[in-house]
Amino acid sequence: MPQSSSWTSPASSPETLKLAIVTDIHNGPNQKTKMGSAALPLLAEFSAFCQTYQPHFIAELGDRISDVDASADADQLGEVAAHFTDLPSPHHHILGNHDQVHLSIADNARILGQSMDHHSVDVAGRHLVFWQMDTKLHRPQGFAPNIADMAWLRADLAATNLPAIIFSHVPLDGGALHSNYYFDSNQQFGGLPHAREIQALIRQAGNVILCVAGHVHWNNVSLIDGVPYLTIQSLCESFTTEGEAAGAWATIEVDHEIRWQTHGRDTISLAVPVRSQNAHWREPLPPFEELVQQQQISKGLEGITGLILDMDGVLYRGEAPIPGAADAMAALQAGGIKLVALTNNARASADQYSAKLAAQGIALSPDRIITAGWATAHYLSAQRTAPTVFIAGSAVLAQELAAVGAVVSTQPEFVVAGIDLDMPLSTLATAVGHLHNGARLIATNPDNMLPVADGVEPEAGAVVAFLEAASGQTAFSVGKPNKLIFDHALVRLGLGRENVAMVGDTAETDIAGATGAGLRSIQVASGNPADPANRHQPTLHVADLSALADQLLG
Questions:
Q1: Angle formed at CA 236 by CA 233 and CA 242, multiple of 5 degrees
Q2: Which has the least CB within 10 A, 225, 268, 284, 328?
Q3: Residue 453's pLDDT band (boundaries 50, 70, 90)?
Q4: pLDDT at 1 over 70
Q5: How far is CA 302 from CA 504, 520, 540, 547, in A?
Q6: pLDDT 10s digits, 342-353
Q7: Domains recognised in the chain with CATH numbers
Q8: First-to-last C-alpha distance (Å) of the chain
């Protein structure tokens, strides 16, 4: 069972809990934007502040050092520990990822003079939880869930009726890290893959009123189910403070409201009411996608003046034209309906698809066709000028990438995964090596297989699954259902979302993608069979494109 202790300051009213927090001290050499050489003088200022402020409790949330080697780290940690020996209030330390690079958990416990196990303490009528979850950074995937950690937290919260405050090193909110110097391009190292599972545990407990963390080197707040999730700025970070160490530490006071203030050069203050125990945001709510689908179904085809068309399953199946598709396309074009074709297949170019359609009696120019290969190339060109790449895909994909200035490299920033049926296993082995060296995995599309006349062929999703399993990375997929590729189609059409519908046969890509992009969707029965139990349901079911043209044109 969880172990707790009780302590109440004689100097402060138990109705108002006073906390002082410091995090990400990073004592050591200056590294990137961490001004480690300023850490100890700033920590001395924090200690002096606590002498005056007289908090009930002091929390230190990890990453006390900037790891160099075992000897230097032990010395740096000892210097930090010395500043906590004469504080006026009890304090507790939490393990960060940098604290464990060269030093063991036992080393940290010995130098700091405290156990590094999970710990909770009752202070001034509140239950403070120091959650020592696994913060060992596993590369390249990031932090790993730990069943025992979750079980401890669940049991600890269940064992008290007091309002609880959870302290952790890594934030529990899973919030966005856009523009964060360290984590914008390394999201997997900034958050937890099981953040939603943790939030569900907190919701179920019903007595958590506040979560406080560090790690991400900036001040931030998220409100989830009425609970504030705060992150506190690093003591010596400088990327938000024009090259000067932020000198940040925080105070939190709790009575009928929570008052947070971070001091230093990167100041912030916030006051929010304390959530009542077992009070929750409304539930159960239907899934957001379901609400969107209900609204779209009520609109039907009203106001539709443009269509985004999947090709395989809508216009043809494999190499065989779908009966009536050519006449339906001609009727739609004659009726003033704007058309764009959108395919997840990156094995052919828009020119090649236009020629294939022309052979089937369908006139659609290359500029009205978007492929996942083209979209992937343009996604990368928006990330970098002349992005360096390694390609595990077709010759056409390589041509699309070259057209936007991508450069094939032996030290690539990106591994681009598509499909090439002649691709040797050695190509995948090289790709895995690049991924372990820091390259990001980009996929043209997530489809696992492609229906053909005599069965199925593997698609890019099969290659991506191999690379994800071998590297620990999760691919960023550009093709359907990603909203990005639908946005390209809307630009080509020149229409607003309210006037466009997606026509496709696959629930997980065509229908789900349309819903995510705010579009209505029409599922045809001429391709993959529809599943009434699938959670991705369209605005309308039709037999084929001919039936849709009849309804749309009256």
A1: 85
A2: 284
A3: low
A4: no
A5: 19, 10, 12, 16
A6: 999 999 999 999
A7: 18-273 (3.60.21.10), 288-344+481-553 (3.40.50.1000), 373-477 (3.40.50.1000)
A8: 70
Cross-strand pairs, 317:
320
> Could you tell me the strand order of the sheet in which 520-524 lies?
369-371, 338-343, 306-309, 500-504, 520-524, 540-542
Strands (DSSP E) contained in 191-233 are: 208-213, 220-224, 227-231
Indicate yes or no: pTM above 0.85.
no
Q: What is the pLDDT of residues 143-190, one digit of tens each?
A: 988 999 999 999 999 999 999 999 999 999 999 899 999 998 888 899
CB 358 within 8 A of CB 368: no
What are the Cα distances from residue 429, in Å, to 138, 415, 488?
21, 12, 33
CA distance linking residue 431 with residue 414, whole number of Å: 10
- d(C-alpha 442, C-alpha 418), whole Å: 9
Q: What are the strands of the beta sheet with 227-231, ordered from one edge?
A: 4-7, 119-123, 126-130, 164-167, 208-213, 227-231, 220-224
Question: Which DSSP category does 348 fall into?
Answer: S
* Distance from C-alpha of 429 to C-alpha of 427, rounded to nearest angstrom: 5
Distance between CA atoms of 222 and 227, rounded to whole angstroms?
8
Check if the beta carbon of residue 173 is closer than 8 Å to that of residue 195: yes
Q: Which tokens is 54 given?
A: 């007289």
How do residues 225-235 score in pLDDT, each as one tens digit? 999 999 999 99
The DSSP bridge pattern shows strands 338-343 and 306-309 to be parallel
DSSP 3-state of 168 = coil
